[in-house]
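ok new one. same drill as before - structure tokens go in, u give me an amino acid for every spot. 178 of them this time. try not to just spam alanines like last time pls lmao
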């Protein structure tokens, strides 16, 4: 890090990067396209370390029936309030061991948004209303791994069991719900 940047606050550095990108887009966009042969992405992301988007199981909580019932009730909807789909997606990327720079493409399958990660090796579906058609459409893409929201099965154990079997027959090595 240069001595000039050492004392600056992170937000000042982010603002500086944004100004440089704006200048490059305005003044040098044609040159960048010619040099690279394609339109380059000059954007960037800023992440802030925070608590998990999912509530965690508290092993220290009372082990009596009442404490267990309270904790089970708290985990019916375990996604913290105010969290976006991008928040959930990036935490899932980190928890699956993928870097935040892994390419992610948003595709539509059976009328629902699905995130295709790493060229389709991982499919992440954060829909809260999964269907058998969507499960089959994801399986047809033959990913290595699939992650879905547990609440997407809407207490439909039959759909979840079918999803396990559909993914297994298509060679999906890992199917998880969060």
């Amino acid at each position: 890090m240069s001595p000039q940047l050492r004392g600056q606050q992170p937000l000042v550095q982010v603002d500086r990067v944004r100004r440089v990108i704006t200048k490059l887009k305005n003044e040098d966009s044609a040159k960048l396209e010619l040099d690279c042969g394609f339109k380059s992405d000059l954007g960037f992301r800023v992440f802030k370390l925070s608590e998990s988007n999912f509530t965690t199981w508290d092993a220290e909580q009372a082990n009596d029936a009442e404490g267990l019932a309270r904790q089970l009730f708290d985990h019916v909807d375990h996604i913290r309030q105010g969290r976006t789909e991008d928040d959930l997606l990036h935490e899932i990327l980190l928890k699956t061991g993928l870097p935040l720079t892994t390419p992610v493409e948003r595709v539509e399958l059976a009328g629902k948004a699905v995130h295709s990660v790493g060229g389709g090796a991982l499919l992440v579906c954060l829909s809260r209303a999964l269907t058998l058609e969507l499960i089959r459409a994801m399986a047809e893409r033959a990913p290595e791994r699939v992650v879905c929201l547990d609440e997407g099965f809407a207490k439909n154990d039959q759909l979840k069991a079918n999803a396990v079997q559909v993914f297994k027959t298509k060679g999906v090595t890992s199917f998880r719900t969060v």
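Residues 3-36 form one domain. and btw The helical segments are 3-6, 10-36, 65-74, 85-95, 132-140, 157-169.
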